[in-house]
Amino acid sequence: MRDLASCFSEYSVQISETSCSSHSPNSCISPNLTPSVQNAVTSLYKATLSNQKQIPVTLTWSRSSVSQSLTIALGDDQSAAVKLTTNSRIFRKLKGAKALEFHGSAVEIFYDLSAARYESGAEPIDGYYVFIAVDSELGPILGGGSAPEAYLRRLKSGARIAKFALVSRQERFSGNAVYSTKARFRDGGAAHDVVIQCGGGGGEGGEGLKQHPVLSVCVDRKTVIRVKRLQWNFRGNQTIFLDGLLVDLMWDVYDWFCNPGSGSGPGCAVFMFRTRSGMDSRLWLEEKMMRKDEDKHEFSFMIYACKNL
Q1: In which domain of life is the source organism classified (predicted)?
Q2: DSSP readout, 32-98?
Q3: DSSP codes joined into one string, 101-147
Q4: What is the pLDDT of residue 281?
Q5: Distance of alpha carbon 194 from alpha carbon 222, whole angstroms
Q6: Cα separation, 230 vs 290, whole angstroms
Q7: What is the mean pLDDT of residues 197-225?
Q8: Range name among 38-47, 69-78, 221-230, 254-263 with the lowest pLDDT average
Q9: pTM for the complete prediction?
Q10: CB-CB contact of 82 with 60 (8 Å)
Q11: How many Å is the Cα radius of gyration of the chain?
């Protein structure tokens, strides 16, 4: 697959300031369509210890027809990993701790998924916690609820707090060509409703995608991008403004039209949101190799979209 910005057509994008009439997060979706199903969520964190050692930590939530699962992996090659599956047979055991070693660092993973509550997605919405300690330095508590006892004991003993930064988030969907989710684009920022819809000029999905393909992207009920003749403008980018940040929005739906997957349906489309410095007018792809400050990082949010016929 060619890079996302390689086929950008500056005339393919129309920005609309018109807000959707409903106050529902899904108000940009045709009432005849149901949002696609979220199959997996992957969040990549960068842990920075007091000795400046950096360790990538990846959390992947997955769902299937019979179970939910969480995989915690360390390092770019994910050579050290712990997998927890919420299969009903072992559901009562989903509370405890795991210890492992990664490149000379002692890693402890504390978790409680026994009361995790899910809706339609792969990631639980509350009732769980996960936290990671690297060389006795604590990371953040992921999940809802109060701090677990093990975490409070470490705090009282004077344990150091490692710096954990969310670097990227990826979500995988399958179903029709409507994708609805929430995303934060900066630490402490608000959660934004993001809706992506591909269909005909009248907003239809299904056959409309083949006949009159149009891409619409809504953020907080406002249409920020509308791309017509999507079969010709299958790759492109546009910059939007959120939370005081410039956010590059890139799309690549080439596989939907020209490269069907292994099954009977189309391949996977990619939609990417990437923050960048407001002082630089260049696209992040151009500035990526020029950044020298390791303490600064942009955040990327990517949606992989598999559309069923």
Answers
A1: Eukaryota
A2: T--PPEEEEEEEEEEEE-TT--EEEEEEEEEE-SS-EEEEEEETTTT-EEEEEE--TTTGGG-EEEE
A3: EETTEEEEEEEE-TT-B--SSSS--BS-EEEEEETTEE-PPBSSSSP
A4: 53
A5: 9
A6: 33
A7: 74
A8: 254-263
A9: 0.80
A10: no
A11: 21
Which amino acid would we find at residue 57?
Answer: V
Q: Which residue has the tokens 């992040």?
A: 284
Q: Give me the residue label for tokens 């299958």.
A: 234
> Is the CB of residue 165 less than 8 Å from the CB of residue 56?
no
Q: Which residue is listed with tokens 């630490």?
A: 187
Strand locations in 120-213 (E): 129-134, 137-138, 163-175, 178-183, 192-199
CB 243 within 8 A of CB 186: yes
β-pairing, 37-48 vs 54-63, is antiparallel
Check residues 206 and 67 and name the one with the higher pLDDT: 67
CB 214 within 8 A of CB 226: yes
What is the rounded average pLDDT of the residues 191-202?
81
15: three-class secondary structure by DSSP: coil
Span of 49-53, 176-180, 281-285 with lowest mean pLDDT:
281-285
User: Which H or E run contains 300?
Assistant: strand 300-307
Position 97, amino acid: A
